[in-house]
Design brief:
The structure is a single chain. The protein is of the alpha+beta class. The chain contains 3 helices and 4 strands; from the N terminus they run αβαβαββ. The protein has helices spanning about 5-15, 30-45, 60-70, and strands at about 20-25, 45-50, 70-75, 80-85. A 4-stranded mixed β-sheet has the order 1-2-4-3, with helices on both faces. Keywords: RNA-binding.
Length: about 100
């Protein structure tokens, strides 16, 4: 689990990032989870945007993505979800 201080640090790091995935009408699927896992391994910190036509609540989508990808949910702000997962090979972010 991330501490409040670590979440603040990750939020500041994520501020300038653009969402690289979009969750639409179909919600979360296996292929998306696989791609998100690969992106997390490469970048550690990613943003996912929830589109207007998504049938699910953005907080539910955030929880589902975090659980299925094994990532930490840093924050849900507006329709954007920030996820963090420590990379095994490309570790760049050093948490405080």
């Amino acid at each position: 689990m991330l501490t409040g201080k670590q979440k603040r640090f990750l939020r500041s790091k994520a501020h300038h990032l653009s969402p690289i995935f979009q969750v639409g009408k179909g919600g979360v699927n296996e292929n998306m989870v696989k791609q998100i896992n690969e992106a997390l391994e490469a970048r550690e910190l990613i943003k996912v945007s929830v589109l207007q036509n998504c049938e699910y609540d953005r907080k539910e989508v955030a929880e589902e993505l975090a659980v299925k990808s094994g990532a930490e949910l840093v924050q849900v702000i507006g329709n954007t979800i920030v996820l963090y997962k420590e990379s095994e090979e490309n570790k760049e972010i050093v948490l405080p």
